[in-house]
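Figure S4 source data
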Amino acid sequence: MKKTIKNNFVFALLGLFVLCFIAYSNTFHHGFLLDDYTYLIGEDNLLSVSTGSLFIKPFKEFFRPVGSSFLKAELMLFGENPVGYHVVNLILFLAVCYLFFLIVFRLTKNFELAFLTSCLYAVHPIHNFLVNYKSANMLSLYVLSMQISTIFFLKYLDNGRKKFYALSLIFYSLSLLSHEVSAMLPVYLFFILYFFHECPLAQKVKRCLPYLIILAVYLPIRMNLPEVRRIDNLFLLHISFEEYLASLMNLTKWYLSKLMIPKDILFIWDEKIAGNVFQFWHFFVIVAVLSAFIYCLIKGKKDIRAFGLSIFILGFLPMFLGSFTYAPILHNVLLEPHWFAFSSIGFFIFMASLFLIAGKRLNYRIVTAAILIFLMMGAFWTRKGNTVWKDEQTITDYWLGLNKLNGTAWVAKAKIYIRDHDQGLNKRNYNDCNEVADLAGAYHFAWQSEAAIKYFQMALEMNPECGNAYYGLGMLYKDNENYPMAEEALKTAVTINPQSYPAYEMLIEVYEKQGKNSEAEKIREMMGAKTGKGN
C-alpha cells in the first residue's frame, strides 16, 4: 500500500514536470522587464543594499524582505543572464503545483482529484507571470510559504505534535514577509477546520488565533515603516457605496472571464471607477455568490467542491482594499491576478471535481481523452501567452493595446524611451528642444520629477520659445498639485502656440482646481468659437 502511494506521488511529480515544461519551455531566453530593472539592473539594484537592511526598511517602497533576499541571492548567482532566473522560476512553479497536489490529496485522499486539480492549475495561463516575470519569484515564495504552513498545520491536526504547529506559524510569518496577501491564510485554515475537522467551533477559532496574533503584530510594524508603499485612503475618493461595489464587480467580471476563456490575460488590469451604474446583474451576482457561499457552509461539510468554492470566493476579499491602492491619484481601480495565486486553487478543485463526476456518469475513456485534450489546450494557450513576455517593449505594447489605463505599463514605456534616448545633460547631444522636452516628459511619466525638471529647463535653454517644454512643465506641476506654477507654464505654452488645444484643456482643469471657474469658462467659450461649437 505504501509503495503504491509512493509511486503515485512520483507519478504526480513527473506528470506535473512534463506539463510545466511543455507549457513554459519557450520562456528561458526572455529578457528583463518592469520591476526586473528595479531589483536586478543598474547601480541601485539589490546588490547596493545589505540583506539585513531588507528586513529593517523597504526596498524601493516595498517591504518584502524574504522575497527580496531570495532575489538578491539569484542576482549574485546569475547577474544579468536571464536563463538562470527562468529556470529557478520554473522550479518554484513546479513546487507550487506539487504542493497543491499534496494539500488536496491530504484533504480528500483522492489521488485523481488532487492530481487533476494541480494539472489544471499548472497549465492555465492565468499563472504565467510566475514563470515569465523574473521578479515574480517573490510571488511564488509567498504561495509556497502559505502552502508549507498549511501542510504543517494539517500534520499537526493528524498527530497533535506541537512542533508542526510551530513550523506552520513560522512559515506563515515568512509568507507575510514575502507578500501582504498572505494575511488571508488564517481564514483559509479556519475553513479547512470547518469543512474537514470535527471539533467545537471555539476550538477551531482557538487554533487559528495564533496566526491572527502574528498578523496583528506584523500589520502595525509594516504600516509604520517609513517610505513603504501604502494603500491610499479609500475615503479620499468620495464615491458612493454603489460606485465602489460596481467598480469591484467590473474587476471581478474581468478575472472570471479570464479563468473561463484564457486569452488576453494581463499582469494587472485597470478599470475606471464606475459611476452610479449599479445594475441588476450586479445585484443578481452578489445574491447568487452569497447564496452559494451560505449553502456551502450549511450543507457542504466534508464536500471538497463546497470547500473549493468557499476558498475561491474568500480569495476576493483582498480586492476590497487592494484594488483602490492608487485610486485617489489615478481614479482607476485595479486587479492583479497574483492576488489569487493561492485561492484560485478552489476554482481548479471545483473544475476537477466536475470532470471526475462526468467520468463516472459518462464514458470514462471519452472523458479521460477530453481531459488530456483540455490540458494540452491549456499548455498551448500558456505557450502562446508566454510570447508577449519576451521583452519589455513587447509586454508594454501588448498591455497598452488591451488596457491603456494602467500606470505601470506607461511607466515602463517611459523608462524604455529614457534608456533609448537619454544622452545626458549636454545640449550638443540633441537635435532640438522638442527632443529634450520629450525626454523630460518620459522622466515625468516615470515619476522622476527632479530629472524631468532639469531636462525641461535644458530644453528652454536651447529654445526659450519651446512650447512643448512649457506644456510638459504644466503637466508636471499639475500632477504634483502645484497649480499656480502649472497655470503659469500652460499660459506661456498657449501664448507660444495658440493652436495647442491640449494645453488649453489642461489649463481649464488647472483653473477649476484653483476655483477660477470664470477663467475656465472663458477658455471654453474661446475654444468653442474656434471650433465652431460656440453659441
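Figure S5 source data
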Amino acid sequence: MQKIFLFFGFFIFLLFGARAANAATLYFSPSSGNFTVGNVFTVNVLVNTENADINNAEATVNFPSGLLEIISISKSGSIFSLWVEEPAFSNSAGTLSLNGGLPTPGFKGASGKVIGAVFRVKKAGSASLVFSSAAVRANDGYGTDVLRARTQAQFNLISEEKPLPLPPTTIEVPEAPNIKSSTHPDSNKWYSNNDPVFKWTLPSNVSEVRLVLAKKPSSIPQVSYIPPISEKALTDLENGIWYLNGQFRTSAGLGPVASFRFQIDTEAPRSFEVTRVDIDDPTNPQPELLFESSDSTSGIDHYEMKIGEGDWFTISPDLAGKPYKLPLQAPGAREITVKAFDRAGNTTTTTTTTTTIESIKPPVIESAPAKIEKGAPVDIEGSAPLRVKVVLEVLRGGGKFAAEISSASQIVGKFEGVADDNGKWEMKITGLPSGEFWARAYSLDERGAVSVFSEPVYFTVSSPLIKNVLRFLIRGFDIVLNFLVNKWLFIVAGVLIWSFIYVLIKNVFPFIGRELRKIAYICRTYGLDKKVGKRSKKLQIELKMVQNDIKKELELLEKIRKHRGFHSSEEKYIKKKLEKYLGLLKSLK
C-alpha cells in the first residue's frame, strides 16, 4: 500500500509540477488601440514568468510593413542586461528580433519589460503584431524553455481627420499695414539720420490711413489721411527710440494697428583724453594708455586707434577705462590718435601729445677686422648690458654709411648673441661673399624693448684669387726688368709675355698698367733697332720718362697714406716694389 501512494505522488508531481515550470507568457502592451495615420505610438514586449525564474528570452515579431513602420527601438528599462544579439528591425521585411539575458538569479515577475518599439502609422487598416517564433528559458542550469503562451496585439489604424473649411465671411477686415523704411530699415540699429522716410503697400479697398508718431508701441493712430497715402516723410526728429503706428480702414471698419520701431542718434560721443599711465618706465616697448568716452543715447560701439603713420585698428569698448597696452613699439616719438564710435556711427577723435619710447642702452662694437679673405670667419666683438640679447646686422655697401645703405633691402644677414656676465659678446660670421660691408648692432631685452643701432663698422671681404693674380703680376714685372738689364737676348720674348700681362692688369691697377706699357715700348724699341747708338739714345729717353712717372705714382701713394692710411698689405707691397724699380732704372745710367 505504501508503494502505491508513492507511485501516485510521483505521478501527480510529474503531471502538475512540470506544468507549473512551463508557465511563462510573452505579450504586448498595449495590445490594442486606435491610432491615426501619421501618428506614432510605442509598443513594449513584456514577459510574465508566473513564479518561474528566467535568465533568457528570444523572439521574432512580425508586423504589417504596409501599414506600420518602426522609427526606433529602446532597451531602456529592460530586465535584460546582456544581449546575445542586439535588437534589430527591418521595415521592408516587417520584422523585429531580440535575444537577451541576465545572470543568476535571473528574473521573476508578471510584467518584465524586454524591449520597446516606436511605430508610425503609414496607412489606414487593421494591423496585428504576432510572435512568429519565441522562447523563454528558465534559470535552472539547463536552459529549459518555459514559454507557455504568446499573445498578439491588434490595432485599428484610421485616416487623418481633416477639419471642415470655414464658411466664407462677407465682411473683409483690412490687414495691418506692412510698414518699411528705406532710411531706417533695421529696427534694432541706430541711425544718425533724423529725417526718416516710411512706405507701405496700399490695398485697393482701403479708404483711410491713420498714423501716429509716438514713444510707445501701443499708441493708437489718431492722424487721419483721406484720401489714403502710401508713404510718409518725417523731418528733424529728436534723438531716441520712436514708433510709427498705423492702421487701415475699409468698408468693414478699422483694421489692426502695425507698429514700426526706429532709433535716432545724431550726437557724437563725449569728448575724452588719452593719457599715458606708465610714465615711470619710458623704455617700456608697450606703453599703457588710458582713455574712455560715453554716449547717453545709443552707447559706445567701439574704438579705433592709429599709432603714428600706421593703419587704424579696432578696440573693444570693454577695454576702455583701464590701461590699454599698445603693440610692441620701437624707440622713438609718435602721436597716438583714438576715435570713439557710437552705435549710430557718430565719432569723436582725440590725439595725444607726442608719446616717446626711449631706447634701452645700445651695444658697442669694439673689435672688427678691416679686411678678410673670402671663406674666413669675420670675428666681431663688443659690449652690451648684462645678459641682454644682441642682434647684429650685416649690410652690403661701401663708402659713407648712407640712408640707402641702411635700408632693409641691403641686409645680407642677421646674427644673434647674448652678453655674458661681464657684458661682453662675440659673433663669428661666415659665408659672406666678396665685397664691401657694414655691420651694426642693437640690444633686445626680455620685454621686447629694442635699442637704437650702434655705430656701424666697415670691412671688406676679398677673394684669394685676386690676391694671387696681383702677386703673379708683380713677380712677372720684376723678372722682366731683370731681363731688360742683364738678358738682352730675351727682350723679344719679354715683349710677348708683357703684351699678355698688359691685357690682364689694364683694369686692375691703371697706374701700373701705364708703366708697363711704357716699359714694353722701350723693350720693343731696344730690340728692333739695328743701330746701337740710336737704340741707346732712345732707351735713355724712355728710361727717364719711366723714372718720372714712377716718381709721380709714389708721390700719389704717399698722399693716400697720409690722408687715410693703407687699407691692405697689397698697397704697401706695391709702394715698396715701385721704389725698388725706380732704383733699378737709375742704375741703368
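The helical segments are 2-21, 464-486, 491-505, 510-528, 532-563, 569-587. The radius of gyration is 54 Å.
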